Each structure stands twice: as C-alpha cells, then as structure tokens.
Amino acid sequence: MAEEEKLLIPRDVYLKSGIHIGTKFKTKHMDKFIYKSRVDGLSVLNIQQIDERIKIAANFLAQYAPEDILVVSRRENGWKPVRIFAEVTGVKAYSGRYPPGLLTNPNQENFIEAKILVVTDAWPDRNAVGDAIKAGIPVIALCDTNNQANNIDLVIPCNNKGKKSLGLLFWIIAREYLTLRGLIKKPEDLKQKPEDFSEE
Residue 38 belongs to what domain range? Predict the structure, then answer.
C-alpha cells in the first residue's frame, strides 16, 4: 500500500486511461519499461515507471519558463491534449505536420525559439527531434513499446496513441508543472479535469 501512496494519481485512474497498454511490438529501448506481455500479444508498461518518469519530466520542465517550452504533436489524437496543455500552462504548442527549420531557421516566418522540446511520439515527430538536436536543446518524448529512443534525453513510457491516455498524461504534467512553478498552491487547485484534455 505504501507504493500506492507514492503515485501522483491513484493507480486505477492510470489503468482506466489505458496509459499502460503498449503495442505488440517492442524495441530494445523500451524493454526495461515493459512489465509483461498479455495473452493477446500486447505489451503492458509498468505503471510505477510511467509515474516516476512523469515526475522526472515535470521537475525537468519546471526549470523552464513556459515560453521556453515547445510541445509538438504530429499525431491527431495529441492535438487537443497539447492545445489544452498550452492554454493551461502558457507553453508553446505546434500540432500537425512539423515544418523543417521551425526551431533552427530564424528567417522562417513561423520560427520558434525554445529551450526544451516535448514530443508526443518520437517517430511521427522525428523532424522536430532532429531540429532540437541541431539546436542543441533537450528532448522529452512520450514513447510506446514500439518506439526507438535514441536521441531522446528523457523517455516517458506510455500509450502515446490513445486519446484518454494522452489526455491524462498532459493533465498530470500540467498539474505538476504549475504546482512546481508556484502558479497553483497544490495539484488539486487545477480547475481542469483529465477529461478536459481528452478528445471526445
């Protein structure tokens, strides 16, 4: 029971969102986060490790002002969670097809200056990751069991495809970030609920 109290949110809330359900494929990068494989072949991620990584990511992000953080999502299921996350925290967000040079070319019309990048999936968002490497800025990536994690500074293992899972994850990070930055007194003060971050 002691382990339960250490989690950022109750275990059953994690489980209901499907945040721990991976894919049938697993890479050597993600092997250490996998708790077991189900009968149907799907990999199951370790909730404890997901929670730990969210804590680390929130602490890391809290060292940066919102305007220095860029969150990118090529995958459509991430658009709403990323948009609401940006509204709630004040960070910059970019959804849809990532234009090369967004982080590296100051002559580009939509050039964005950032000190840290968060991507919802290391594979579809690989152009953003490539740009961040060129710009020398750290990358936090949400990675499913089938993701490669090279060039990623901090991996958050999770189901990065599900609407509920992405909504819950960005809600927790928003809550922790705002608390750590002193913008809300305690996590419970965040007015939005996880479902506000999820696609209907």
Answer: 2-197
Structure tokens at 160: 């990065």
> Which DSSP symbol is given to 200?
-
Contact 97, 74 (CB under 8 A): yes
How do residues 104-122 score in pLDDT, each as one tens digit? 999 998 899 999 999 999 9
Strands 34-37 and 43-45: antiparallel
Locate 170 and state its tokens: 């960005």
Res 1 pLDDT > 80: no
154 CB-near residues (< 8 Å, 6+ apart): 53, 56, 57, 60, 138, 139, 140, 141
Structure tokens at 16: 């209901």
Q: What is the CATH number of the domain that holds 61?
A: 3.40.50.10490
Rounded to the nearest angstrom, the gap between the alpha carbon of residue 129 and the centroid of all alpha carbons in its chain is: 14
Summarised one tens digit per residue, pLDDT across range 4-49 is: 458 999 999 999 999 999 999 999 989 999 999 999 999 999 999 9
